[in-house]
Amino acid sequence: MSTSSSVSSPQQVESRACKCRLIVKYITTMTRENDGRRFFKCCLPGSLSCGYWDWIDSKLPSHVSLMIHNQTIELD
Ligand SMILES: [Zn+2]
Prior knowledge:
14% strand, alpha+beta, three-stranded antiparallel sheet, binds zinc ion, 1 helix
């Protein structure tokens, strides 16, 4: 009998490459809908971009993102 415990690794931002084979940058959203939520995005601008993007964080509950949003405003 083997005791194999599956340890889920902590969420971390790893390096990823998009279709351009470039390391994607990650961005933190500052919109009211998705405040503080991070996503990967192709580092090339506009029409040069391959259009790659992907969420890092799962969607926050609306009250949490609203809380972050309010804190951001207070700091300003
Ligand atoms: Zn790209």
